[in-house]
Amino acid sequence: MLIQGQVGQPTTTSIAAGTTPAIRQGQLGDVVVSELHGRYYETTYRRNMYTAALTAGTTTSAALSTTNTGLLLLNPSYSQFNLVLNKVGFSFLVAFTAAAAIGLQAGTQSTAALSGLTTTNTQTKSNYIGLGTIGTTQGSALTYSAATTTAPWLQCVFGAGLTGAITTAPGIYSYFDIEGGIIIPPGAWVSTYTSTASGASGTLASFTYEEVPL
Q: What is the pLDDT, as a whole number, of residue 95?
């Protein structure tokens, strides 16, 4: 199929509704477009965007401990979706006892299934407000605050958590854009990572992701 457009601005005034103008192109053959709605409107409107979160302060496990505590997002092996990670949120309300790198760890269930699973203080909800909680009306991912894992690895690093009083801003606690750069296929998982354990019961976190059919 051949689609032709017009290089440059087709008119200096607004185009009337119902007309069929040529597609606008740049001088390298690129197509010029703009978003009608917010970036994630279509995905969220179609009920494919979710956020998993810790609802109470948690102490994260140190480094790549297989006794994982924090926020863990699992795509079960029977899932018919890829989980596409878009946003990660971190908040540390208690100073670290030792300086730590902060990021994400990941793993698979290829050799052993996750065990010791705990869902305490976790929730996953559709980003289309009012649709209810995961497991009751929609969604396939599973969220845990503790799990026993096998052979995890460090996936990415965001910043540092330091030991000063929280009034001195000792670390970077923010909302990070992944923008679909991490895909969690069926049987895989991601979780929070801190190279040393976080301050006692002081960590909250969230993952915002899209479910995309295989």
A: 85
- The answer to which of 20-24, 54-58, 164-168, 186-190 has the lowest mean pLDDT is 164-168
pLDDT at 136: 44
Q: Tokens in use for 11?
A: 């008119």
- CA 68-74-78 angle, to 5 degrees, is 140
Question: What's the pLDDT score for residue 155?
Answer: 98
Tokens of 199: 């301050």
What is the four-CA torsion angle of 190, 193, 199, 205, rounded to 10 degrees? -40
Range(s) for CATH 2.60.120 in the chain?
Answer: 41-213
CA geometry: angle 85, 91, 93, nearest 5 deg: 160
Type of residue at 150: T
What pTM value is reported for the model? 0.85
Which helix (H) or strand (E) segment holds residue 187: the answer is none
DSSP 8-state secondary structure symbol assigned to residue 56 = S
What DSSP character marks residue 65? -
Domain at 41-213: CATH code: 2.60.120
